Each structure stands twice: as structure tokens, then as C-alpha cells.
């Protein structure tokens, strides 16, 4: 049920971290993968890993906040593979600070990458899925879509707002496209080590102690531990599951 053989997946933010891990997981389970991100050299490294598995990889250097670039990138995938079965909207950024501190420019940057990116990608992928009467869209939200931090150094009001917007977009699309055999779901990772967190949260010992104390698993997520949820939502194992939001957080949001 989790087999992705014959499927074509797009992964945004695929140059490093959770996105690169997800792209490799898709390939390990049989999919060919189109890799979207701004850093071409990083994408080439991920593509090499995928090709070693015997799968095809397409590098598509793209800024997901640029509509014309997204449109051209999606067309390149269609021209190369002929279809798109899976879209993982993973590209994201965490802008720190409260509403008193965030500049308008930073606010717009966070919203553009975290919300406009999935919007643009979906806008140009969904028509191909509707035509094929098949599609699996997975949006990466965050536990911070439903929980927040009271400690000032950890305030991320833009991140809270943008990731909850991703949940709302997921529900709206799910309701609209279920009749086309397209499922749309979102995943809320807890704390994982990535390019986004390793230089900030993972360097804050007080935060880590508090996180580990308050999280039932008593630790952050390990590389690869997000992949099970992504594969579930991206495969026919979730054929009757749509509009859902699942957290992968070691239980952090239940206590």
C-alpha cells in the first residue's frame, strides 16, 4: 500500500533537511522525483543519491514565491515525466519575533514562502492531477500551527500565522478536489534537527531541556522519523483520508 512505483513526485525545499530526506524516501519506495529549491548545487547532490537508487531525478532550481518560475518548473516536470502524482509542499522559513518586532518585509517573506509557495505550486499542479483523476498533495505545516510559545526569545508570530494558514489551505483544497480523486493533507512536525533549527533552537540549551521535559518522547525527532507520515499521505494507503492534519512530534502537542 505504501509502494510508489510508477509515481512521479515533486518535492519543494528539497535541497536539504526534511525535504531532501523526503525526496530520498519517495525514491526508496519507487517514485521518480522532481526536486525544487533555489540552490541548484544542493539539489544536484540529492539527485545523485536518488539516481544511485535506480530512480530518476529532475533538478528544477525554483523560487516558489515566483509565480512564473513555478509555472515553468511544473511544465518542465510534465515535459519530462508526463504527469505529476504527488506534490510535497515542504519549502518553509521560520521568522522569529513577535508582532511588535517583525518588520513588514520579514512578515511578507514568511507569508510568501510558507503560504504563497504552496498556493503557487498547487495552482499549477492541480490541473494536471484533475485531468488524470489522481493526486496526492501533502503540505508541511508545523506543531506551531496549533501551539505557541510564551517565552519571548521563542516567539514566532509570523510562523504561527503562516503555518495555520497552511492548515486552512489544506482543508479548503481537500473539500474541493476530493471528487477528482485528489487527497490533500498536512503534516505538523515537532522539533527536528534541520537547517532551519540547528543554528537556533538546537543551540539553546534551556529550550532543549524544556522541550525534552515537556515532550512525552523526551527528545527531538530523528532524521527519517517524518517519512512514515509523508509516505502514508503520499500513497494509496490514505486513499480515503483527506483534509487531515497530523502532528509528528513525540507527543509534544498532547501535554
UniProtKB/TrEMBL annotation:
Belongs to the short-chain dehydrogenases/reductases (SDR) family. InterPro entries: Sc_DH/Rdtase_CS, SDR_fam, Sec_Metab_Biosynth_SDR. The keyword Acetylation does not apply. The keyword Membrane does not apply. It comes from Enterococcus alishanensis. Transmembrane segments: none annotated. It comes from the Bacteria. Keywords: NADP, Oxidoreductase. Pfam families: adh_short. This is SDR family oxidoreductase.
